[in-house]
Design a protein that fits this description.
The chain is mostly helical and 141 residues long. 69% of the residues lie in helices and 0% in strands. The longest helix is centred in the first third of the chain and has 27 residues. It is rod-shaped, with a radius of gyration of 33 Å. The termini are far apart. The mean pLDDT is 82.
Amino acid sequence: MILMAAFAFLGALLGLFWRPRFVGAAIAVAVAGAFQGGAFMALRTLESQVNHEHLLTQLHALFGETPIDFAGPVLAAFVGAVFSALLGGMADSRRPPVLVTADSLRRKAGKDGRYARLEGMVEDRAIHAKAESRIDSILGL
């Protein structure tokens, strides 16, 4: 259980802080797999030795006895890395924030799909008045 928590924490750290995030998850699984594989091989070697029954009992309590027991901490490292990578990706400050401005809330598209101008959006200037009078004279309004 201690190894599962330790490898889950290692996976969470690597998944959160390593860039790109999927490489952190792969490294966490590789480190956990190498550690567990080394322990598995060391226990198999110790089983052939004599007078190590008490040591083997203690190590089997720590690491487990079957290959399925050895896979638990590796899966914990993977799950910790994936969850922290996903949550870290959502909270990443490098992404541009989504902003909703007051202009985007007030401006409504008309029937033709164009946005209507509200008062105060465009400053009234003399050149605008001249252009409007020119268009009115051309159209005969």
